[in-house]
Amino acid sequence: MRITTHSLALPAGLTALAMLTTCGGNNPSNSASLGPVAPGAASIVVTDAPSDAWSTIQLQVTKVTLVHQEDHTKEEIAFSGNATINLVDMDSIGELLTTAQVPVGNYDQMRVSINTDPTTMSLIPQGSSTPVPSSQIHVIGNGVIPVAISPTLAVTSGGSNVVQVDFDLDHPLFINQTPTGDVVLNFQLKLKPNPVALHLIQLHRNVGALTSLDSTANTFQMLTKHGKTLTLKTDTNTLFYDVDNRPFAAGSFAGLATTDAVMVASRLQDDGSLYAVRVWYCTAANAANLPIANWSPEGHVVSVNTTTNSMVVDNADGHPRIIDVDTDTVFTFQQNTAIGIGQNYLADVHHGFKVTIDVKDPLARPLHASTVNIQRAVDSGYIDTSTTASRLVYGQAYLSNFRSYPYSPTFSWWDFAQPSTASTSVPDFLAALTGAGTTRVMGTSSLTWNVGTLAWDANTAILLPVRLPAATIVQNYDATAGTMQISYTDPITNAAVTKTIKLTSAVGGGQTLVLKISRQNGVIASGLDDPSAWAADLTTSVTKVWLTVVPNANTSLSAYSVVVLE
């Protein structure tokens, strides 16, 4: 295998790769007559899928390579090292790590390598402060994870391309915990759809030091904490804060000095360049004054109290902060959509939202929010049977916690395993809900702010695999029909339930994943089961099976994953 020496060093924090590019440039076939072909620019952005079950999933990425489409024995090294990352931190936020040069060519696969040594990992369940002992962490495979790139990443001379891929923490097979407390990791990566415009990508704030200034072009360069240089544009709309003294004063581009410590809130322009929205700066000696040193500005909303006009936000270091909302606090949605000003709008913020908060004084206690930008508005849970053709309803009757949302004009829905089959048909969505029968349906929805009604609309609905109670197989898997039957006890009615389960053996995102776990002499062995072995392995002789399923319109259930305990 030829590995080129060209390197895009990805620093710590990598969970996903976003390479931002447009078409153009020279034809590589003419390189002999034209001389060396200039590479294309690549901006590396981190993102990740959310998880509610874990507060920390920390691991090391050791290598990322891009594989040439015409010859899969040829790779370009994108990263080599030890990038320690906490996957949970990157939920819905992109962290711009570096801008580098990529050799011209077409790439249809990425390979991400993970350090599989459990002693390099930290797994902490949500609500706990105790990591899972490394002796109880088991990794499936050799840690090299291939990800198909489709459409093909075409890097052209002087251009840029867009590919996003992230670790899929909510995948049913990504992380499974056995009754003994052992954790089995089976790393899952997936491509992430590109936004319609690059400026819609929500970026984490970068912290580092200034290295150069260009007062003519109103640009500056900074060396990030990851050891990478970023070039940022500014204009008259960029807000500067001089944090050398308290209270913090308004600053300016002219107030910047090389070697200053900086924190930058930025966004990508649609041409791939980086624009500084807000810049906090101070001398290196006063770096502790930077807001991020005292308060991580991105976090999940834990709770909201409209009586005390405050909310609790669980920030990136896992510690909750109480944030007071004042009469002049400004609320926005994804930076560009105004929600309103004042304490009344706190009622529109809910548990699970991802927010960016600017505080008036990061050293004050309690903290007071000057702005609250809702980066990701979501709801998830059980989809209630009262859902209609006009409103999507989440919640459970016995908890009296119904939340109802009109469908947005751009509403779409899909099965978790098949995002490529997204549908805008609300009647078909309702048919799938009805087809679930007595099996509860779970989903997750992204919400969008309706400036006309001043309320949230459901923009998407993704039907999530529902984990059934531990079951036994009562009818062997039939390869011809692609089905088997299971029996389990309904935890609510305490009645025995028998279900016909459909398994899909076709390769692709919809293929049922069967994981076998066995323990012999205290040693756990696990691995994915090939469909050719299902008829022999999915039989009534199996001790227990755990399934995650999605509903079908015809009242059958499709298995997304099957965990077999032998």
Architecture overview:
4% of the residues lie in helices and 49% in strands. It is mainly beta and 566 residues long. The chain folds into 5 domains: 190 residues, no CATH class; 89 residues, OB fold (Dihydrolipoamide Acetyltransferase, E2P) (Beta Barrel); 79 residues, OB fold (Dihydrolipoamide Acetyltransferase, E2P) (Beta Barrel); 87 residues, no CATH class; 99 residues. Strands 33, 34, 35, 36, 37, 38, 39 and 40 form an 8-stranded mixed β-sheet that branches. A 7-stranded mixed β-sheet has the order 17-16-15-20-21-18-19, with no helix packed on it. β18 and β19 form a beta hairpin.
Straight-line distance between termini: 39 Å
Query: Total helix count?
Result: 4
Helix content, binned percent: under 10%
Rounded to the nearest angstrom, the radius of gyration is: 25 Å
Low-confidence stretches: 1-34
Strand segment count: 40
Could you provide a short overview of the structure?
The chain has 566 residues and is mainly β.
Record keyword descriptors for this entry.
5 domains, OB fold (Dihydrolipoamide Acetyltransferase, E2P), 4 helices, 4% helix, 40 strands, 7-stranded mixed sheet, mainly beta
Task: Give the topology.
Blueprint: E1 2-3, E2 17-18, H1 31-34, E3 40-46, E4 54-68, E5 74-86, E6 95-102, E7 105-114, E8 122-125, E9 137-139, E10 144-155, E11 164-167, E12 175-177, E13 183-185, E14 189-192, E15 206-214, E16 219-224, E17 229-233, E18 239-242, E19 249-250, E20 261-268, E21 274-282, H2 291-294, E22 298-305, E23 310-315, E24 320-333, E25 337-341, E26 354-359, E27 367-376, E28 378-382, E29 391-394, E30 403-415, H3 426-435, E31 442-450, E32 455-464, E33 466-467, E34 472-478, E35 483-489, E36 496-502, E37 513-520, E38 523-528, H4 534-537, E39 544-551, E40 557-565
Parallel strand pairs: 1-5, 9-13, 18-21, 24-27, 30-32, 36-40, 37-40
Antiparallel strand pairs: 2-11, 3-6, 4-5, 4-7, 4-8, 7-10, 11-14, 12-13, 15-16, 15-20, 16-17, 18-19, 20-21, 22-23, 22-26, 23-24, 24-25, 26-27, 28-31, 29-30, 31-32, 33-39, 34-35, 35-36, 37-38, 39-40
